[in-house]
Amino acid sequence: MTDYNWCHNPDCHKIETQSRVRGSGDNKVLRTVKIKSYSPDSIWTYFCNNNCLHQFLNKFPREIANIRPVNKPSETPIKVEKTKSQDYRMRYNGADYERVPYTSTRTTISRVDND
Ligand SMILES: [Zn+2]
After folding, report:
1. What is the 69 CA–ligand 1 centroid distance (Å)?
2. Per-residue model confidence as pLDDT tens digits over 57-89
3. What is the CA radius of gyration of the chain?
4. Distance 11 CA to ligand 1 centre (A)
């Protein structure tokens, strides 16, 4: 098994950077970037950078969507809790800052486990 991949962006070798230049004299080329693979679970094992990843995504949007089609929305059961608390903001009255009380509302979303 190889410990490297070639960047999967089909146009990686068309991007003009010094790091892609290979060859000598009049036989120079821009070559696809070679990537050392650290983890097969990392997207960066297959793409040399964000630019190449997004060029790939924009070139194959339908193919990517068809890897795992989504035909209906998914839902996660949650509990929404609103808690009110007394708080203060500072207001400048022309000469000094003064504490002005107000009631703040915090919304907390927590998951409901249905195991
Ligand atoms: Zn690349």
Report:
1. 26
2. 999 999 999 999 999 999 999 999 999 999 999
3. 27
4. 7
